Amino acid sequence: ADTVETSFLVRNLTANRLCQNQVITAVNDSLPGPTLSVKEGDTLIVHVFNRSPYNLTIHWHGVFQRSTPWADGPEFITQCPIRPGGNYTYRFNLTGQEGTLWWHSHVQWLRATVYGALVIRPRDGQTYPFIQPYREDTILLGEWWNADPIDVENTALASGGAPANADAYTFNGWPGDLFNTCVSNNTYRLDVEPGRTYLLRIINAALNTQFFFKIANHSMTVVGADAAYTNPFQTDVLVLGPGQTHDVLLTTNQSLGLYYMTASPYASAVGVTFNGNTTTGIIAYQNSTQTTPPILPDIPASNDTTTAFAFSSNLTSLVTSPFWSTVPRTVDENMFVTVGLGLTPCNSSQNCSGFFGQRLSASMNNRSFVLPSQVSLLEAVFRNISGVYTTDFPDTPPLVFDYTNLNNSFNQSLLFAPKTTSVKRVRFNATVQVVFQNTALIGVENHPMHLHGFNFYVLAQGFGNYNPATDSQNFNLVNPQERNTIGVPVGGWAVIRFRANNPGVWYVHCHLDVHLPWGLAMAFLVDNGGTPESTLPPPPADLPQC
Ligand code: C2O
Q: Which PROSITE patterns is this protein grouped with (predicted)?
């Protein structure tokens, strides 16, 4: 195995999109930032130099970080931010996972422009568990604002209401030409040869949008999800929540021509109209003489939950992969966790543009998560600093009601979840099962829930209220998909299971970034029950301080 060493210089630059200049924060002057390519087993060292005006961290989304909890990156969870002018070196190993991951800033909304791909290929002498592709391409789906995204977030937080939608969706940083005006000739274009098989690594790096991805006249074969191999699954549509990746094989078996690929919003929130435009890229066959516009695929309706669920519930793991391990049959920690939006009481000195004259908020098990600000959780654990967090995150919600019925009468106090920094403490190597259940206090919506530090098995998903007696009969314990991010179906539930085999503090949150500052988060503290020193490696000397 090799050591791959690189530097990220993070600074502001002026980019032109949608016929406007906009100052953005970018890594190594590019949008998306650099693609990092490693082989399974390699060690990656990234020296980050923050020359932007903002606080910064980099999170390596989906990397297990075995024995390197200080390199995970979420601000105030595993480190304090790198201040403007500061540096931090992330060092970690990439053993036991292959496929497509990505990296992004984990400070406020900076990840709108601070993101890039992380590709993990087989070690020398090893091959993919599928046909060797003729070529590989990386496609990052993103969002573009004609504004500073941090201003967009701060404006929303000050108002108590929801933030503005993106001005455009992007393929590899470029708004498409079909539905956006003023894109000149910046549409992303993938040139292909006929009769070849390409491996497309598709990453949803958008802040707040789930996407349907299609290519006109072509089907795709999914072979990987979140850097875990899947059984080949043929489909003409992908569904990706923010944070998710899919590796697909594309065979160029159509007549020479131009074909649009589209990323259109899956806006699962019931009753919310969505004004985002589909973005387009072009698959261009070599030697095509087509002069007419590219062929467009049928675009799913933005509320097409049937299509989204069919895709998301049909993926299964490739159990012949060398990285597969069997699903734990016993559960040490059994949790039932509600996820959803709510309100924060508004006082007269504040703006109150949430619903009912209050401010928008969100919670898990009726706790609205608040980040510490003086020290990271991991450092508070390591140094035994009291008063930073509590370990009373509940295993069940405070009250049970009909989560799926908007008109159901429920205890109104559930709308106003207390703001706490409570974590769930689990013993090293415990098996943890979590039933995520959507609440319907304020709307219902598909929440892409992300777990740091681990992959989990998705045992089952469904709509309505989870029923332990009947739904547990349908768990897939044989070849469930393995992921780091799962969309909890709108008005429904998803059951995940993982082994807590990595000591540290691991964030769990909705990857719709609008929900994060509202508190749709919690964290696992995994330790061996002994002293912090016996569980955790010491922090690196250059760990940023608050
Ligand atoms: Cu990709 Cu906590 O995030």
A: MULTICOPPER_OXIDASE1, MULTICOPPER_OXIDASE2
Contact indicator for 251, 216 with CB cutoff of 8 Å: no
Measure the CA–CA gap between 435 and 468, rounded to whole angstroms: 9
Residue nearest to ligand 1 atom 1, measured at CA: 61
Q: How far is the CA of 388 from the centre of ligand 1 (A)?
A: 22
ipTM score: 0.99
Q: Give distance in angstroms: CA of 281 to centre of ligand 1.
A: 26
Q: Left (φ > 0), alpha (ψ -120 to 50) or beta: where does 515 sit?
A: alpha
Q: Which of 316, 296, 142 is nearest to 214 (CA)?
A: 296
- The response to whether residue 515 sits with its C-beta less than 6 Å from ligand 1 reads no
Residue 190's Cβ-side half-sphere holds a number of Cα atoms within 13 Å equal to 26
Tokens 């739904």 map to which residue?
471
| DSSP structure string for 350-389 | S---SGGGSEEEEEETTBEE---SSS-HHHHHHTT-TTS-
- Residue 107, burial from CB neighbour count under 10 angstroms (0-12, 13-18, 19+): buried
The answer to whether 107 and 83 have CB atoms below 8 angstroms apart is: no
pTM for this model (two decimals): 0.96
Rounded to the nearest angstrom, the distance between the alpha carbon of 297 and the centre of ligand 1 is: 31
For ligand 1, is residue 111 a contact (CB within 6 Å)?
A: no
Atom of ligand 1 nearest to the CA of 111: 1
Bridge partners for 27 per DSSP: 10, 30
Q: Is 241 in the pocket of ligand 1 (CB under 6 A)?
A: no
Domain map (residue ranges) of the chain = 333-535
Give residue-wise pLDDT tens across range 64-97. 999 999 999 999 999 999 999 999 999 999 999 9
For the CA of 102, the nearest atom of ligand 1? 1
